[in-house]
Structure formats: structure tokens, C-alpha cells
Automatic annotation (TrEMBL):
CDD domains found in the cross-reference section: GT4-like
Keyword Glycosyltransferase: yes
A GO biological process held by the record: carbohydrate derivative biosynthetic process
Domain Glycosyl transferase family residues, every copy: 141-294
Domain of life: Bacteria
One Pfam family of this chain: Glycos_transf_1
InterPro entries: Glyco_trans_1, Glyco_trans_4-like_N, Glycosyltransferase_grp1
Keyword Glycosyltransferase appears in the UniProt entry: yes
Key words of the record: Glycosyltransferase, Transferase
Phylogenetic classification of the source organism: Bacteria, Bacillati, Actinomycetota, Actinomycetes, Micromonosporales
Protein's name according to its UniProt entry: GDP-mannose-dependent alpha-mannosyltransferase
Segments forming domain Glycosyltransferase subfamily 4-like N-terminal: 6-130
One Gene Ontology term of the molecular function aspect: hexosyltransferase activity
Organism per entry: Phytohabitans suffuscus
Signal peptide range in chain numbering: none
Length: 329
């Protein structure tokens, strides 16, 4: 068997968001755990597939670590309009079955604890500082997007209702500013109508995405329900100042007066005002951008991976952890 086998499982689309899919448990999961006989079960954003993983880990006495990445309760609130309490009840069952839950930000960790989830630890994310680099700034890209020398304000992310990209409407009206939106999702058509002055580029990846990041002047983040905010780190690595809501993961990342500005969540006037201040002060943008890059240079994926391994080792060394019994395939 390959030392790192990848087992594909069935999935189902989320209601009203068919491009996002949830993995479904099945016999392949049991077979994989039995045949691979891991020392640790790592659950990435456990909900359905992960819930079965927790149950199997408990049955086979395997140590188990869960990683909280997505605010599923907010999805229930936004797309269904009910069921938030039921989601939290289910998440308590799943996460409390693990030996440890890792949260990506202090706000998300506090949210988990407030909803009865135990043994929560902080584990933030890394960023590729080689791919995302200010040196990738491209004059041709800038000329195409800002033919009259406009200040480029970028948004990168999924275009979905909970991301509140519509809050950029007032920012689009700022003189000398061009808003560029990178990403796709179910709200794109509505957003194109709501933000007629913005440039929509669709999804971009790899080197093309890195060039766009580096070619922006300001990065605007709008979503109030982010558990972390990975695109903020990518903007920082690209040398950009960031304007973001003072909610969720961005609170850990953006230091006002150092690498960006935090504004009241879902306040389009405050968002536009913060962007306007940066748009009219090139030296402030430059200094924030330098600070932003410096602040993430130590957050490599290698360093973050070492932190994860330390969590594995800590769990395995805990007195209450029972080693699993290996079963031949």
C-alpha cells in the first residue's frame, strides 16, 4: 500500500450552495482505518465524514484530533434560516469526542468554548511567502485594471452571501479607486448587478493569483464570519495593507495602525472610509505593507506543520490516551 493513500468517498452538495460539498461516511472509511492502522486520527473540519471518524477512533481506541475550520452554524443561519442550535449540538458531540480541537483564531476558540466544546487549543495557519511576494507586482496587470492610474482595491474569496462582498458598494464609488473582485460563487450574478463599477475576474490560482495580489494597492476583506482569514495572510505576504471587519479571525491578524485597519462589521461606510484614508496616503500604504510582509515571514507552512506535529506528540504522550489495537488487513 502507498504510505499516504488517498481514499475517495461520496459527497453531497450543501443546500443552496451546490459548489460546496460534504463528504459522506461509508464502508471505505472503516476499511481505510483498519488497513492503514494509524497512530492518530486527524479530522479536518469534522461534520458528517468527520463524525464517523470520531466514532471509529473511539471504537478502535485511537487518539483523535479535530480541526475547526468552517463556521457551519453561520451557514445554517445564512442559507437555511434555522437549525443553528442543532448544528452546535451536533458539533459538541463530534468535537468533544476528540482528544483535542484546534481552532484557527482566538475568536473562533472562544466561540467553541462558549458553545460547550472542550479541550480547545489555538493553531493558526501558515502562508506561502515565496509564491505571495511583493516582487510579483506587475505593471501590465496594473495598466489593464487601472488604465487611469486608479488605486486598486482587491477582494479575493468566494462570492457567497455570508461573505458580504456587497458591502464594497460605497468603496466602488470612491474617486480614483478601482475595486477588483477575484473569485466565484453562487452570489456572483447578484454582485455584478450590485457592484457595476467593480471588475470581476472570476477564480484565479497559482502564479496568476499571486501577481494579482501583488499588483493591488489595498486588500479589502468583508466577511464577518471568518474563522481565520487566509486571504488576509496572502495579502500581507504580498505587501498589502488590509481593511477588515473587527470580527472573527481578522482580529488576530490585523493590527490597527501597523498593517491595516479594523472596522465595524457589516458597516459599508466605515469600510469605505478606511479604504479612502489609505487610498489618499501612499506613504501610509507603503509602511503598512512593509509591516504586513515582515509580520508573516515566520508563518511558513513548515513552521505551522511543526506546531501540528507538536500537538500530535502531546496527545500521544497524554496519560489518558489509549493506544489503538492494530488489526491486520
Amino acid at each position: 500500500m502507498h504510505p499516504f493513500p488517498v481514499i475517495r468517498v461520496p459527497s453531497m452538495p450543501l443546500p443552496r450552495y451546490r459548489s460546496l460539498r460534504l463528504g459522506l461516511p461509508g464502508p471505505k472509511l472503516t476499511e481505510a482505518l483498519v488497513s492503514h492502522a494509524p497512530d492518530m486520527v486527524h479530522l479536518a473540519c469534522p461534520f458528517l465524514l468527520g463524525a464517523r471518524g470520531v466514532a471509529l477512533a473511539q471504537q478502535r481506541r485511537m487518539p483523535c484530533l479535530a480541526v475547526y475550520q468552517t463556521d457551519v452554524a453561520a451557514y445554517a443561519r445564512t442559507y437555511v434560516g434555522w437549525g443553528e442550535a442543532a448544528v452546535w449540538k451536533w458539533m459538541r458531540t463530534v468535537h468533544n469526542g476528540a482528544d483535542r480541537t484546534l481552532a484557527p483564531s482566538t475568536r473562533s476558540a472562544a466561540d467553541l468554548v462558549a458553545h460547550g466544546i472542550q479541550r480547545v487549543w489555538l493553531w493558526q495557519r501558515g502562508v506561502d511567502t515565496v509564491r505571495f511576494d511583493p516582487a510579483r507586482r506587475n505593471d501590465l496587470v496594473r495598466k489593464a485594471l487601472a488604465p487611469n492610474g486608479e488605486v486598486l482595491v482587491g477582494y479575493v474569496g468566494r462570492l457567497a452571501a455570508e461573505k458580504r462582498v456587497d458591502l464594497l458598494a460605497r468603496t466602488c464609488d470612491l474617486p480614483g479607486v478601482r475595486v477588483v473582485i477575484v473569485g466565484d460563487g453562487p452570489a456572483r450574478r447578484d454582485l455584478e448587478k450590485a457592484l457595476p463599477k467593480a471588475v470581476f475576474l472570476g477564480a484565479r490560482h497559482g502564479a496568476q493569483l499571486a501577481r494579482l495580489f501583488a499588483s493591488f494597492d489595498i486588500f479589502a476583506h468583508t466577511g464577518p464570519h471568518e474563522t481565520f482569514g487566509q486571504t488576509i495572510q496572502e495579502a500581507f505576504a504580498s505587501g498589502l495593507p488590509v481593511v477588515a471587519p473587527s470580527a472573527g479571525g481578522p482580529v488576530d491578524l490585523v493590527t490597527p495602525g501597523v498593517n491595516g485597519t479594523l472596522v465595524r462589521p457589516e458597516d459599508d461606510d466605515a469600510l469605505a472610509g478606511a479604504v479612502a484614508q489609505l487610498a489618499t496616503d501612499g506613504e501610509l500604504r507603503r509602511q503598512y505593507g512593509l509591516n504586513a510582509r515582515e509580520g508573516v515571514e515566520g508563518r511558513t507552512w513548515s513552521a505551522v506543520g511543526d506546531e501540528l506535529i507538536a500537538h500530535y506528540q502531546s496527545i500521544l504522550a497524554s496519560p489518558g490516551v489509549t493506544r489503538h489495537v492494530r488489526v491486520a488487513a
